[in-house]
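Kindly inspect this chain:
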Amino acid sequence: MHSQPKNQAELERLRQRVAELEHALEVHVWGGVLFQESALPQLIVDYETGAILNANAAARRFYGEALLQQLMSDCLCAEGLEWKRDLKPLLDQQPYGVRVSRQHTYNNDIRTVEAHYARMHLHGRPVVHMVIVDITDKECARQELESTKARYEAFIQLSNEGIWRNALTEPIPVQLPLERQIALIFERSYLAECNPVYCRMWGAQYPKELIGHFMRERVSPEDPKNIEMVRQFIMNGYSLSGWLFEVPKADGDCLYLLCSLQGIVHEGLLCGTWGVCRDLSELLRTQRALQQSEERYRTFIEYANEGIWRFDMREPIPVSLPIDQQVDLLFQHAYLAECNDAFARMYGVASAQALINIALRELLIPTEPQNREMLRAFVQNNYRVEGVVSKERAADGSERYFLNSFFGIVEDGALMRAWGVQTDITEMRRLQEQLDQAYRLESIGRLAGGIAHDFNNVLTAVLGFAELARGRVQDETTLRYLDGITQAAERAANLNRQLLAYARRQIIQLTPIDLSTWLEGTLDILRRVLPENIRLETQVQRPLGTVQADPNLLLQIVLNLLVNARDAMPDGGTITIALQNKTVRRLRTNHVPNGHYVTLTVIDRGTGISSEVLPHIFEPFFTTKPFGQGTGMGLAAVQGAVQQLGGAIEVRTRVGEGTRFIVYLPRILASKRARLDTHTQPT
């Protein structure tokens, strides 16, 4: 009796166990189907080793058979992680979770995935079930979104323009009447966002000082200009561009902002406004100052006594062209584009307008050598000259002389225009010529008086010695008197030569000379005129150019300069003769025009020349030496000889420190030297 219930209970437990096993089998089958048929890649990985125990079809497609055949999950990782070292400790701490990683996939691609993992036991074996979600595209989109946001914020914060956004305490229906919308915008609009530039425009340092402030606190709703701005904003479809917004400041000045607005309209409601503004206050002040400056400039131009002009080019002149070609093109293409009335009056024309568009060649005489030389100097000196004289033609055909300073404007490698100032020196030049004539007459008179005086003394000596010779019949005495006659005759001949040199009437024979070779051959002669307490040194630049000169005339120049230097050094010292090539590129003085030279410089460390004496040193018969110790013709003869050779001479001196005489002799260029050699060959 008692065994029957017991059997029934056992049978019931057996049935329950069978049901559990059937359910487990059903779950197992269902789980297997879910694992295999899932669209998401799934893996079963051994917990201890990381070996891949199973992979569903989606995983095989995602990773590829080549990777899965290696049977180790380490092969999937693209981050250099190892299962036992890096991943198993993570599972020990957190059996369930999600980890973002980068993994190798099919076709050697690397994808970013979310690995959803769970540690479990399968048939008593610890395993890890992984479900893989590819989030590569999602991650790229997220990064792009973050990058876009960062760029946007950087653009806003780093922009040179003020950028701001106004919000409304309550949206405004766009169907309301225009005037009602204007009033509500002033009432409800407040600053919600802005960048630092916008803050500085309104005198704030940080955005938080302005954010939350209502629009009406900065933009007065009583000002008709502000009301009109909002009206135009609404009437233009809640958009406004290039509106000049004027804000009075506390100091009495005004803030001028160029504004553009764009409304935020959604479902018939105005929700806010974006705006961009640029501070034009400084620009407008600069423009006004420029206008005032231009007015002053125009006034200055019109009332100036100097002729002020601008010549433009009908065709730009390339600066790479040869100099002479540029000069020809200047005469051909330059025309008067602007001038003042003073300029017009210099040409005998009543107003400036009558000369506008006249060609340069109609004013500046093209055939005049000094005009071409002026334009050559203009090109050579980087399109700038100062204080040069031009010979030009007035409206009545008369010749005029002007002192010019002008500069050119070069753009993109071509001369476009030239600005200049000129002064009429025609009358001054006439007076200067008269003054020069007076000086020449005075010099000739002084020269004639000196010649008469010196020759009278010489003739007196000659007559005295001749008279004595007649009273003596002894040969020895006669010879002594004859020696005196000879000395006086030599002195007269020497003086005559100096006079001829000053007057440039000597007969000279020019020949190409290398001054360094010539100087070496004359050093013995030069040293003979110097006492023992004076040393002669030479400094020669090599290679040295060739000059066209007369050797005897050169010797006369150097001897006179050496004697002059010797007399300035009574206590002895060193005299230096220096030879070097030199190119004069701008008109430094009237005596040294532009050109290529070989300079011969005689340098002493003597007493120097005072400012009172310096203007007279080249005058004939002018001397500071005691009576009877000099004729005053030495430097006058030097100047005449240098001019006869086509050169120029400069003096640089300082009292107590010495003097240097610089002789400029024109250098023969290679092409000219070749022509000279051709002409000198025998035929």
Notes: Residues 506-675 form a domain with the Heat Shock Protein 90 fold (CATH 3.30.565.10). The chain has a mean pLDDT of 80.
